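User: Can you model how adenosine-5-diphosphoribose sits in this protein?
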Amino acid sequence: MEGLIKQAARDLVESKHAIALTGAGMSTESGIPDFRGPKGIWTTNKKAEAEAYKMYELFLKEPKTYWVEISGSQGTYRKFYEEIRKAKPNPGHHALAELERRGILKCVITQNIDGLHIKAGNKKVLEYHGSIYKLRCISCGSRFGIEEVSLDELPPLCKCGGVLKYDVVHFKEPIPLDVREESEREALRCDLMVICGTSAVVYPFADLPIMARFGSGRLPLGLYVTGHKTNVKIIEVNAEPTPLTQEGVSDYLIQGKTGEVLPKIVEEVKKARKI
Ligand code: APR
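Assistant: Here's the modeled complex, given as structure tokens:
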């Protein structure tokens, strides 16, 4: 593994536009369970996963019931969101913030809704699945900090009259266009992508490495425009191999904990840059 850590540091130092893609595996060392790892929320509670698939439809049909479920004292989400709010960034988050401070990492695109990359100090963070710290209007797309909106009346309404929901993307819910487009631009522009702590099985997020690899993307009908392999360097840091590893989308996998591997890469970057 040490050889690959040195390799990743060299690749990062030589890159011109490195970005990071992250998933729930980044936050397990902050005490937030992932979804599909051995002790993941979906792995251990298939019923909760089935329920999660119904949330967006519930919001569209019965926004008030949705809000009671999502914020009510009985709501399963309320406990999860409270856990998340207590969590602190771990050494993996701090390592990515350090890479941004050193001008190497240009952007983090995260599936995580826990805000820990921002808490760790990253400035350019695209929250692909949103954030528990924001509400979003599904009519006009406006976002508000949770502290800006009273939840005394449910469902909370936007100034435009639209209904607000947490800016958290549920299954079957479209990715907000602004964050999706910017993420795709970054994926097509980068010359290095480090993918940390994701099983890479949820779309359209999992299209981003494909776009970087083949300079293409998922067409409306789900077909890939098969471009030629680009020379983008794609590095995975994950506890286990993923489809990206198996299908040769990534160049190499550094198998280990993000909270341990990423700080070691930063140490090698410092040596390589002699600062
Ligand atoms: N270090 C490295 N990898 C880890 C660590 C760790 N400390 N902890 C867990 N992992 C790995 C797991 O082995 C797994 O491969 O991280 C990956 C996490 O995968 P998932 O649990 O599927 O999480 P993620 O890929 O982010 O899920 C994507 O699914 O349910 C939706 O919206 C939810 O954003 C989430 C999306």
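A couple of observations from the model: Residues 23-25, 28-29, 34-37, 40, 111, 129, 197-199, 202, 238-240, 242, 257-259 surround adenosine-5-diphosphoribose (CB under 6 Å). DSSP finds twelve helices and nine strands in the chain.
User: Helpful, thanks.
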